[in-house]
Design a protein that fits this description.
The protein contains 1 helix and 3 strands, in the order βββα. With 70 residues, the chain is of the alpha+beta class. β1 and β2 form a beta hairpin.
Length: 70
């Protein structure tokens, strides 16, 4: 299994001076603002990705019905 990705910047101050915390897996410390935070992957979304950047459209037939008569 590959190593987990590290955050690029602090979610509170935006600084890039981050170090892994001794508190455990997924915890990080920011030296700039002196905050600690935890990252956790919750899972994949069941709806998938949309083609236009908006919410995934699960029923294309209804979307295109109004366009056929135009």
């Amino acid at each position: 299994m590959s190593e987990r990705a590290a955050p690029f910047y602090c979610p509170y101050c935006g600084d890039e001076d981050l170090r892994p915390s001794e508190e455990g897996h997924g915890t990080w410390e920011c030296a700039a603002c002196n905050r600690a935070f935890r990252l956790k992957f919750l899972g994949l979304l069941t709806r998938g990705l949309a083609r236009d950047g908006g919410p995934a459209d699960t029923n294309d037939d209804e979307t295109h019905r109004g366009e056929e008569g135009a």
